[in-house]
Design a protein that fits this description.
Blueprint (H helix, E strand, L loop, with lengths): L2 H23 L13 H11 L8 H21 L3 H23 L1 H6 L2 H12 L8 H5 L2
Helix pairs in contact: 1-3, 1-6, 2-3, 3-4, 4-6
Length: 140
């Protein structure tokens, strides 16, 4: 398989996973396929996987994570600063995976393939050849 197609597939797979999670916490998926289904349930889960954080910080953490997921998804789709965005996506996913692991055990992080997604993001960050990326037009 062509490395350009693999890079595009990684970009789209990661970005759609981020956008799907964001859509879930805003209630955009039907209840029968939702994990959280609404913002309050998402914040409860955020508190659950980050029990060491003060409860007052949880809304801020939820907003920051959601904002990062939206920005990273858009940047990956359009191919803007792809390598840096992929690296930051990998770190965000790794933090999420470790939080899941330390709070509820490793099975959830494995079942949701969070470590796999983090590894995919880090792999994407190493792919330098440009393909269907805004970076091609603006040379950043």
């Amino acid at each position: 398989m062509n490395s350009k197609i693999i890079k595009l597939f990684l970009r789209l797979a990661l970005s759609t996973a981020f956008l799907s999670a964001v859509a879930d916490r805003f209630g955009m998926w039907s209840k029968d396929v939702s994990v959280w289904g609404n913002w309050d349930s998402f914040l409860e889960y955020t508190q659950y996987i980050n029990p060491w954080l003060p409860e007052a910080l949880i809304p801020t953490i939820g907003i920051l994570a959601t904002g990062a997921e939206i920005i990273f998804a858009i940047f990956l789709i359009i191919g803007f600063k792809t390598e840096q965005t992929a690296k930051w996506s990998g770190f965000l996913l790794l933090i999420f995976a470790l939080s899941m692991t330390f709070s509820s055990g490793i099975k959830g992080a494995f079942d949701y393939s969070v470590y796999t997604a983090s590894a995919a993001a880090f792999a994407l960050s190493l792919m330098k050849e440009k393909f269907l990326e805004l970076d091609n037009l603006i040379r950043v």
